[in-house]
Amino acid sequence: MNSGNVYPWGIHFEGKAVISGNVYPWGIHFEGRAMNSGNVCPWGIHIEGKAMNSGNVYPWGIHFEGKWSKFGECSYSECSL
User: Fold this and answer.
1) Domain range holding 20?
2) Could you list the mean pLDDT of each consecutive 10-residue stretch along the chain, which spans 81 residues?
3) Domain contains 76
4) Which stretch of DSSP H or E encloses residue 79?
């Protein structure tokens, strides 16, 4: 995250609790982790137009099922944004 704090009960950004899958002006948060860009679809989360059914976002890139993908280009089912 560009800013914010991590607490045992979740992540807070500028005093607001972050709920997974919600979209905020400063980015998307999924499963308590910040995403710089992407879109959330009912069937999963998207990074740079690529579908991710699950995964975590790290400062150095995106991880999907243990595999690193710098731009989130996962070879899994895609959907239109």
Assistant:
1) 5-69
2) 40 46 45 46 44 44 45 37 30
3) no
4) none
